[in-house]
Design brief:
The protein is an all-beta fold and about 90 residues long. It has a single domain, classed as Jelly Rolls (Sandwich). Strands 1, 2, 3, 4, 5, 6 and 7 form a seven-stranded antiparallel beta sheet that branches. A hairpin with a 2-residue loop joins strand 4 and strand 5. The chain is globular and about 35 Å long.
């Protein structure tokens, strides 16, 4: 298991779009941040935990993670997530 590969696609002070490439078994460790996050599943399957609630998502699905919500994921089938953050995550630059 490892961390996914992160690529910043676009950003301004108010918004950031990031691509995450996952391999089967990769994990996004549980964490929280003050940014509102939108996640779009371009490909693959993932088990997400958001504030203690688990769900599985696949291609074409999207959801919002509120500011401050503890969240993370396990990649069940390798693929790509496209995340948007508002405001921009300066720690990714």
């Amino acid at each position: 298991m490892s961390d996914p590969l992160r690529s910043v696609l676009a950003h301004s002070p108010d918004l950031m779009v990031v691509r995450f490439d996952f391999r089967t078994g990769d994990q996004g460790a549980l964490h929280s941040h003050p940014h509102v996050q939108s996640t779009f599943v371009q490909s693959g399957r993932y088990r997400f935990t958001v504030d203690g609630q688990e769900s599985e998502v696949g291609p074409g699905e999207a959801f919002i993670i509120p500011s401050g919500a503890e969240h993370g994921c396990l990649c069940l089938e390798g693929g790509v997530l496209i995340d948007s953050f508002t405001p921009r995550r300066d720690d990714f630059l």
